[in-house]
Amino acid sequence: MTYVTAAVLLPEERVTEFYGAFAQWLDGAPSLGDHPASASAELRHWTGSEEDLEAAGAIWKKLTPKAKALFARLIRTPDQPHTAAELAAALDIPHGFYGVAGVLAWPGRYAAAEGYHFPVQWMPGEAGEGASYWMTEVVASSFLPHVEPDDL
Q1: 83 lies in a domain?
Q2: Measured by CB atoms within 10 angstroms of the end CB, which terminus of the chain is less buried, N or C?
Q3: Could you give the CA distance from residue 82 to residue 49 in angstroms, rounded to a whole number?
């Protein structure tokens, strides 16, 4: 396999989003236009229902250890935003705040495959900090029964 270096110019506020999409592509995800999340109008919102609990359990089982640690942090502190830089440092996620977007790439796909919107909320952040991420109380309560006490 031959590798090439590619340089792209990105708006600073979208760097984290780019790395998340790039991580998905590297992992073999379909093109962005074919991504399951692109059909977001068909995805369900989290409401705390029994179906949500089942979907959260199915998603949780597929998470990597790093993703479980990140989700556990957000579950412990619902509705409290954490910068990607803070999460990366606290959870020893490689590549800093860029790595956080990569860790969250597959959970987004898993949620879409279950028919749900991405369970983590986010907003663009300051330069050098990356986006901020949080989980609402409703979503956190759907995942909490599936989390091992040691994970919290």
Answers
A1: yes
A2: N
A3: 26
CATH number of the domain bearing residue 43: 1.10.10
Distances (CA, A) of 147 to 9, 21, 67, 106, 111: 40, 27, 12, 18, 17
Residue 43 placed within a domain: yes
Instruction: Assess contact for 119 and 107: CB atoms under 8 A.
Output: yes
Q: pLDDT (tens digit, 0 to 9) for every residue of the chain, 152 residues total?
A: 666 666 666 666 666 666 666 655 555 554 444 444 444 458 999 999 999 999 999 999 999 999 999 999 999 999 999 999 999 999 999 988 889 989 999 999 999 999 999 999 999 888 777 899 999 999 999 999 999 887 76
Contact call for residues 16 and 131 (beta carbons, < 8 A): yes
Question: Residues near 132 by Cβ (< 8 Å), separated by ≥ 6?
Answer: 81, 82, 83, 84, 122, 123, 125
CA angle 63, 40, 88 (to 5 degrees): 35
Q: What pTM was computed for the model?
A: 0.74
